[in-house]
Amino acid sequence: MSKRAIIMAGGKGSRLGPYTTVLPKPLLPVGERAILDVVVHQLRDCGFDHLTLAVGYLAHLVKAVMADGAAHGVTIEYQEEDEPLGTVGPLATIDGLDDSFLVMNGDVLTTLDYGALVDYHREAGNILTIASHNRVVRTEYGVLHLDGELGRTRRVTDFEEKPELPYVVSMGVYVMEPSVLAYIERGERLDLPDLVHRLLGAGEQVGSYLFEGYWLDIGRHEDYERAIMEYEQLKAEFHPGTLPVAGETRRASR
């Protein structure tokens, strides 16, 4: 059965200007390939052969580079936004989502096995599964622990100098059931957190799939610089190789 994936590639990526004034963020290069090219080949290697790119900003460049997907061993269709619809709003305008499907941001660099994520999602019986990652955030301030009533003067019970706070964060990769579309109105701007709140409010089962491997969300200049450096170091992990297509010589290992 054909595996379906939706890649959100329509954002302006303003925090990565001036690079994104001439290229949409998913087409920024890491090594000799564009981020989107890396993502598409990873999806192909995990068995996803039917991809839809939700495009908006500089959509003509994305279409020119990725075309119909034949050169990458997949079928690529496009859903173009007339106006930004958020991270999940475009789903309501995409036809044929009648089985479990994967949704991801087009600027994610990870070694996640997308096929294993879908398998887990189906076994768990979730309507939505969020790929997640442990992340530690260090605050730049000394944090006071206080006791007593709110007011100008309170008793200090502890002091932490620039503490590190652990979080489980979304990777920007999700698996959804077709029934999730009932919670998204056509033409409505909607982001993933809003959809999660709607699903939980309706008593639907939302799950998390914790991934401990490599993951980088390329949103800032420092992230992009890190992606360029680490991609070269981990290239073999991103491209273990399955079925070579025209112009490629990677080994088949699965």
Helix content: 10-25%
The global form is globular
User: pLDDT below 50 for ≥5 consecutive residues: which ranges?
Assistant: 242-254
Number of strands: 13
Q: What is the number of helices? A: 5
What does this 3D model show about the protein?
There is one protein chain. With 254 residues, the chain is an alpha/beta fold. The protein has a single domain (3-132, 170-238), classed as Spore Coat Polysaccharide Biosynthesis Protein SpsA, Chain A, CATH 3.90.550.10. Helices cover 23% and strands 31% of the residues. It is built from 5 helices and 13 strands. It has helices at residues 35-45, 59-66, 114-124, 192-201, 221-238, and strands at 3-9, 29-30, 33-34, 48-55, 75-80, 101-105, 108-110, 128-138, 142-147, 155-161, 164-176, 206-210, 215-217. The strands form 4 sheets. Strands 5-4-1-6-11-8-12 form a 7-stranded mixed beta sheet. A two-stranded antiparallel ribbon has the order 2-3. The chain has a two-stranded antiparallel sheet with strand order 7-13. A hairpin with a 7-residue loop joins strand 9 and strand 10. The longest helix has 18 residues, at 221-238. The model is unreliable at 242-254 (pLDDT under 50).
